[in-house]
Design a protein that fits this description.
By secondary structure, the chain is an alpha/beta fold. Helix 2 (about 35-55) packs parallel to helix 3 and helix 3 (about 75-90) runs antiparallel to helix 4. The protein has helices spanning about 1-25, 35-55, 75-90, 145-155, 215-225; strands spanning about 30-35, 55-60, 70, 95-105, 105-115, 160-165, 175-180, 210, 235.
């Protein structure tokens, strides 16, 4: 429960900060060649525990080949993750969520489809507006209504577009992300999703410096790191 609440708070804070950056024109988008398949897998893995907590069936369908696009891998993972989390929020326990990606002509299309509450016709044209929300299921944590608006702005900064489709209330919904197909194949060894992972436990030999303008926060995190196996972390 603590993990879920912390993850929810972190997502809300990140989204608010990104909205502020976009509004001020200070959001930086990297222009790397990214394998969208890898980004989708990472987003699905990060969200799977949320679906499992309410017995939802989260399915993924991806091609064996890479789907190279130009953009910021972290931001693309964020967008796909937002769409998956949105589907989880508006789908009943025991429902199904389908995530897929494929190349169609000169575009790569990622789809997130669910069997949830759907979108009523009067809301569908406004679903990407800031602070517009449907009514979530009782199991879901309410948000701020900025996730879809942020996803739309992120994808447009990548030169793509996003659309929502629904046949109405209680008939599910589908979100599609369109991105230009890149000519070059991404160097997977440099990918965020393939970066070497350091286990929290058994971190002998790794020195950690915790920096925060809140001394109590720095000291608390330093104590936590000590308990999880990091030798003598220093908080400042």
């Amino acid at each position: 429960m603590i993990d879920r609440q912390l993850a929810q708070m972190a997502r809300l804070l990140d989204d608010l900060l990104d909205v502020s950056r976009i509004t001020r024109g200070t959001l930086e988008i990297r222009a790397d060649t990214v394998d969208l398949c890898a980004a989708v897998r990472y987003a699905v893995d990060a969200s799977r525990y949320l679906a499992e907590a309410v017995q939802q069936d989260l399915r993924v369908e991806l091609p064996d080949s890479m789907l190279p696009v130009r953009g910021d891998e972290m931001r693309l993972i964020q967008v796909i993750g937002n769409l998956i989390n949105n589907a989880i929020k508006f789908t009943n326990p025991g429902g199904k969520i389908f995530v897929s990606a494929a190349a169609e002509g000169a575009m790569v299309i990622a789809r997130v489809r669910d069997t949830g509450r759907g979108i009523v016709p009067e809301l569908l044209p406004r679903v990407f507006e800031m602070f517009v929300q449907g009514e979530p299921n009782s199991h879901a944590q309410s948000g701020l209504g900025i996730g879809l608006a942020l996803a739309k702005q992120m994808i447009e900064l990548h030169g793509g577009r996003i659309e929502a489709i629904s046949e109405g209330a209680h008939r599910g919904s589908e979100f599609r992300v369109f991105l230009p197909l890149a000519a070059e194949v991404p160097a997977m060894q440099e990918s965020l999703v393939d970066a070497t992972k350091v286990s929290v436990l058994g971190a002998d030999g790794i020195r950690v410096l915790v920096v925060d303008d809140n001394v109590d926060a720095a000291d608390t995190l330093a104590q936590f790191l000590t308990l999880t196996g990091y030798p003598h972390p220093r908080g400042v």
